[in-house]
Amino acid sequence: MLIEKSNSAHVNTVLYVGSGLSAKTAEKEQQKVDVCCAVNNAWRVFEKGKVDYWIAPGDFPPANYPPKDFMCQRIGYAEYKNSAENLFSSLGESYKFPQHHAGYTTFFQGLYWIFDTLKPKEVYLLGFDHDYDPQKVALWLEQGKPSPQNKYGGAAPVLANEWVNTFFEGCPVDAIYGHGTPDPLRLGIPLMQELFERAKGYANKLGIGVFNASGVTTGLNTFPQKTL
Asked: Is the pLDDT of residue 154 over 90?
C-alpha cells in the first residue's frame, strides 16, 4: 500500500517492526494490519519478501540491503528528515533541532514519519523492546561505542557484517539476524527513556494509539502493551 501524504488520516493500523528477537512473529501479524513498516535489518523476518515500507538511514550498510526482488518502498533520510519538524509545527511547537528533539535514532525518526505521513489510528511495535544483552552492552561501552557514526572506532570495515560478528563473537544473540550494535544506547538510558515518554505524549496529542505488541517486559520500551 503506497500512501500519498494529505491532511487527513489514511490508515487504521500500522505494524512497525525492528530487529529485536520479538520481531520473529511479525510476518504472521502483518496480515492483521493495513500497513507494515520494517526498519533496517527487520526486512529479514519477512520470508515472503514483502513489506509496504522499508525505513533505513543513509549510512545503513549496503551489504545489508534487501535483495532486489524484495517488495517495498524505501524510506530514507530524504523522506523522513522533515517529519518531526512538520509534526511539531502542526502542534504549534518549534525546535532548533527537531530531529534531535524527536530522538536521533532510526526508530524515532521512522515513528515520527509514520505519525506525520501515514497518520494512523494505531501503531503496533515489534522488535523495538531495546532489550539488548547486558554482555554485549558492556563490551560495546568498554570499546567506546563503535558504530557507523564513528567508523566502528576506527576499524572502518569494508563489510560491517564481518566486523560486528567478530566483535561480538561469543556474546548471546539478541537480534533476528545475529549480531548488531546496541547503537541507540549511545544517547544514554535516561535520555532514551525520556524520548519514549516524549513520543507517547505526542501520540496522545495526535490521538494515535501506540502499543508494544511484543509481550516483552524488559528493555527501554515504555509504550503500553497490547496484542493485535
From this structure: no
